Amino acid sequence: MTHNILFEPYQLNQNMTLKNRIVMAPMNRSMADDNFIPTSAMADYYARRADTGLIITESLMISTTAQGYPNTPAIYSPEQVEGWKAVTEKVHRNGGKIFAQIWHTGRVSHPIYLNGEKPLAPSAVPLKGRVPRTADLQYETPRAMTSEEIKKIISDFTHAAANAKKAGFDGVEIHAANGYLLDQFLHWDTNRRTDQWGGTPENMSRILFEVIRKVKKEIGHVGVRLSPTAYLHLDHDERDIQVSDYVLKHLNEYGLAYVHTGMFEDNYQPHLNATVTQYIKRLYKGTVIACGGYSAETGGKALIDGDADLVAIGRPLIANPDYVIKVRQQLPLVSYDVEMLNQLF
Ligand SMILES: Cc1cc2nc3c(=O)[nH]c(=O)nc-3n(C[C@H](O)[C@H](O)[C@H](O)COP(=O)(O)O)c2cc1C
Questions:
Q1: Is the distance from CB of 310 to CB of 10 less than 8 angstroms?
Q2: Is residue 310 classed as helix, strand or coil in its secondary structure?
Q3: Which residues does the annotation mark as catalytic?
Q4: Which CATH number goes with the domain that contains 144?
Q5: Cβ < 6 Å from ligand 1: which residues?
Q6: Which UniProt keywords apply (predicted)?
Q7: How many domains does the structure of the chain reveal?
Q8: Is 60 exceeded by the pLDDT of residue 42?
Q9: 283-298 pLDDT, tens per residue?
Q10: Of 84, 110, 151, 294, which has fewest CB within 10 angstroms of its CB?
Q11: What's the CA gap between 26 and 321, in Å, rounded?
């Protein structure tokens, strides 16, 4: 049975061992209260999934400029830190481990979330389309950030990481995937800058490496999520691979907990001649988490084949809070349905 490998413990580094190789993928549920504080229902939701080897929380806003959806939780205020303490305590009591995913949406936002201000982005390039969960709003042209504003964002990520430590998280995941702010810097479609933050792979990834360096000083265990393929919220450019090659090679120098694939379906990509996870594994020598459409069978196979070290499961874990037990005992799984997003269970 290929999926037995999923139940072997995994030593993430010398200070942390995961009890199995199933990771809960970050999934925003937009169920925080109106001050962006996690509720007790959210604490119960995460605690019910504490038998996964590692939980990665939904994306947490690092500042008031980070929002792009209603009621997404945050980690910039002391009250939010208190709220997350209740979550981490419950998860730990149930024997789990939990990292906070820290996030800024960049241009994937709208003035309705920003007190009427324009969203911040590397360049003034609008995202086309309608803002989800609004009546009929279109995305607008964002404002290109000044160098000072970029430095402020780096310090907001750092502050969020310090808060994550205070809240009892075991580590943080820097969200540099799925077309949000840090990913916008890593792609030519959204980064048209000609200063030290754009124009070359080194400049385009400068903000990410600054964030990693500073965040690492606040909390020891730091993972990074990446989407080398522009599949969401931005368009592909042939030069993108030069940026992701550069980033992945240099990530080897930072003593990270892991690099995590940010994809909805981790399919074969002709331009990479591999799946995104296989491509990451080719260049990044530390722990790699596969994600995107995996079942216990295909996830187990990816581990056996050496494509990844851990596998993150998203939607099946929404549908099955008892996913780990069901897979272990080979019980049938409930199928995921978007209607399930209306409540936490
Ligand atoms: C409801 C929902 C919310 C998500 N929110 C996040 C998020 O907050 N951060 C993130 O990096 N990815 C997010 N994702 C992507 C998942 O982490 C994952 O990549 C995706 O669901 C594919 O994995 P799966 O096929 O196992 O579900 C979300 C996905 C879903 C379905």
A1: yes
A2: strand
A3: 180
A4: 3.20.20.70
A5: 25-28, 58-59, 101, 175, 177-178, 225, 262-264, 291-294, 313-315, 341
A6: Oxidoreductase
A7: 1
A8: yes
A9: 999 999 999 999 999 9
A10: 151
A11: 14
